User: Which sequence fits this backbone?
């Protein structure tokens, strides 16, 4: 004798399974992130919405690490991490210094262990910054040195220190949506501000979306 599930039960089970999969994905695999400031210009713009691969740097010990395609963090990766002085806030920067390395900045040139680093992703907007010097910094074991691509407009490891390994959320993967956004929007956090921002997107979605940036791979 067969018992057929009711339509309501089938819908309920589908919703529950979908929710579990979505929860697993956002917890362990993929996370959305919005660029709030110009510290990564012109590679990443204010209003870019990213997908972050949380899986790529995953759990590295035990038998599971031999089966799954994990990768080591490497210089040049664009990473998303918890801000060391306030883990509730997420930052996005470029990974520059690895554990044990000596990092120094003279003018517009980064030196790693005394050797100049070739960079083709940086932006400088203040001519006076060429005379500034930062470091040298010795990166402790288990930590990383991160900097913004917009070197004259980035609060990064030069100012607040190193990024602990367990603070790193993942690697920035792709821009899934980009929307023209005011530079000070991240400071507008009240209910009325959020309502106004929602209204702006509702009214101007097609005209303010940067369509050419959709699905752009982050490098």
Assistant:
């Amino acid at each position: 004798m067969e018992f057929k599930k009711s339509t309501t039960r089938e819908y309920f089970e589908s919703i529950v399974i979908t929710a579990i999969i979505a929860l697993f994905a956002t917890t362990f695999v993929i996370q959305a992130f919005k660029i709030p400031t110009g510290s990564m210009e012109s590679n990443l713009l204010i209003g870019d919405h990213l997908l972050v691969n949380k899986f790529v740097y995953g759990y590295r010990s035990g038998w599971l690490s031999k089966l799954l395609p994990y990768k080591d963090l490497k210089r040049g990766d664009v990473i998303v991490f918890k801000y060391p002085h306030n883990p509730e806030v997420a930052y996005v920067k470029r990974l520059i210094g690895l554990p044990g390395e000596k990092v120094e900045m003279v003018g517009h040139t980064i030196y790693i262990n005394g050797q100049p680093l070739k960079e083709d992703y940086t932006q400088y907007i203040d001519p006076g910054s060429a005379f500034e010097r930062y470091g040298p910094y010795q990166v402790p074991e288990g930590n990383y040195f991160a900097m913004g691509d917009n070197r004259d407009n980035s609060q990064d490891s030069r100012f607040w220190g190193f990024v602990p390994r367990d603070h790193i959320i993942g690697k920035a993967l792709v821009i899934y949506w980009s929307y023209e956004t005011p530079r000070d929007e991240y400071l507008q956090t009240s209910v009325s501000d959020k309502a106004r921002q929602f209204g702006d997107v509702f009214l101007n979605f097609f005209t303010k979306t940067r369509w050419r940036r959709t699905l752009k791979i982050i490098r």
